[in-house]
């Protein structure tokens, strides 16, 4: 079901019709010049053209460019380090979506702004912050490129609390936990959205490609597709379009549905959400790009060789964790883009 169809189906019991309410709603976005943030701005503006969007943008030129495309957008020129600006802008917003990377002081400042309008009782969802599942990687195990025999998919329902208690020195983990602790302390409902690998062309106006473009370019310049070890390491993936759709869906549940429904959207300790469509091993990915470019047999490289290509190479290509987006499924959300090969080649895609 598309976002628009879903809006049509939103039961009137859930509250006011979202098509008639958005002008009264103000959503504050960060990271809109980026791959993820650009897509979410586009999906939000399509689904809710009347929602008032305030967007933190660093460069005047980017602000002008985006304003020429999105008439509902008011730029807030500034940086994530200007905490007082973040707090005052969030204080005037009904909802905040942060897509500017792990930045604890910035997110906490926006939580402080949202807290000025909280009511008593259980915190209602007011903030979505983008994170990622790399916190699931246990780097005390050596990187091999192989799927560990003991590994199993992580569910955001059954493992949600464990994910928010992972060692804080893991990627994203410390930031995730501090943001949730601050939300609890301030009585604000926060949702952490964690997509895996992102496939497809960005839907935003500025940045259209991300990590998949880097692997494609590297393979092309080496003349061989490669994996680390046997290449069975597997990440879960979703399309960038479905990520945008899922975030808008969560915002709709949080902002535009009735209080009963809002109460069902888990926040804070129950607020970690995966977005996932399928699982894909590094070898499947390498074979697909090799076939596309006619490069023959996939090469297995060492961790050291991957590090020479890029300092982050072993983590990008030699690890993997599978996730299950059980919370979104419970709320009734389903991904639409189910074929990663189509997304790989979308619009002549230079990605793999
Ligand atoms: N891309 C992926 O494959 C992927 C997968 C899983 C999770 N995520 C998560 O999604 C989030 C966004 O990732 P992305 O790929 O969209 O990153 P990106 O393309 O690099 O975009 C980052 C955005 O944040 C803004 N930004 C960064 N530092 C800022 C600062 N100090 N002040 C103001 N704005 C600042 C950038 O603005 P400028 O344009 O001015 O630099 C840009 O709009 C991250 O939290 C990431 O962990 C991404």
Automatic annotation (TrEMBL):
UniProt-listed InterPro entries: NAD(P)-bd_dom_sf (IPR036291), NAD(P)-dependent_oxidoreduct (IPR051783)
GO cellular component: cytoplasm
Top-level division of the source organism's lineage: Eukaryota
Molecular function terms, GO-annotated: aldehyde dehydrogenase (NAD+) activity
Coiled-coil residue windows: none
Gene3D superfamilies for this protein: NAD(P)-binding Rossmann-like Domain (3.40.50.720)
Protein's name according to its UniProt entry: NAD-dependent epimerase/dehydratase domain-containing protein
Annotated organism of origin: Oidiodendron maius (strain Zn)
């Amino acid at each position: 079901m598309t976002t628009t169809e879903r809006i049509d189906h939103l039961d009137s019991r859930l509250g006011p019709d979202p098509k008639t309410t958005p002008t009264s709603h103000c959503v504050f976005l960060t990271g809109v010049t980026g791959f993820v943030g650009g897509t979410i701005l586009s999906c939000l503006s399509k689904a809710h053209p009347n929602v008032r969007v305030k967007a933190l943008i660093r460069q005047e030129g980017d602000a002008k460019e985006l304003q020429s495309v999105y008439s509902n957008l008011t730029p807030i020129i500034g940086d994530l380090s200007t905490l007082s600006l973040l707090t005052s802008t969030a204080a005037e917003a009904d909802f905040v979506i942060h897509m500017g990377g792990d930045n604890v002081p910035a997110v906490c400042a926006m939580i402080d702004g949202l807290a000025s309008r909280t009511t008593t009782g259980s915190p209602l969802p007011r903030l979505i912050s983008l994170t990622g599942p790399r916190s699931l990687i246990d780097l005390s195990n050596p990187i091999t490129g192989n799927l560990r025999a003991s590994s199993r998919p992580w569910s955001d329902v059954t493992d949600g609390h464990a994910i928010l208690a992972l060692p804080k020195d893991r990627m994203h983990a410390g930031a995730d936990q501090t943001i949730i602790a601050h939300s609890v302390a301030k009585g604000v409902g926060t949702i952490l959205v964690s997509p895996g690998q992102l496939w497809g062309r960005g839907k935003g106006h500025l940045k259209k490609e991300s990590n998949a473009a880097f692997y494609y370019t590297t393979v092309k310049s080496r003349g061989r597709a490669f994996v680390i070890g046997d290449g069975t390491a597997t990440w879960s993936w979703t399309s960038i379009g479905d990520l945008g759709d899922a975030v808008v869906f969560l915002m709709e549940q949080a902002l535009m549905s009735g209080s009963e429904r809002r109460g069902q959207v888990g926040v804070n300790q129950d607020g970690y959400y995966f977005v996932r469509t399928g699982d894909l091993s590094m070898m499947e990915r390498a074979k697909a790009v090799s076939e596309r470019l006619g490069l023959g047999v996939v090469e297995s490289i060492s961790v050291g060789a991957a590090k020479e290509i890029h300092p982050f190479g072993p983590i990008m290509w030699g690890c993997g964790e599978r996730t299950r987006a059980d919370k979104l499924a419970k709320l009734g959300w389903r991904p639409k883009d189910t074929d990663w090969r189509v997304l790989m080649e979308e619009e002549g895609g230079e990605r793999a």
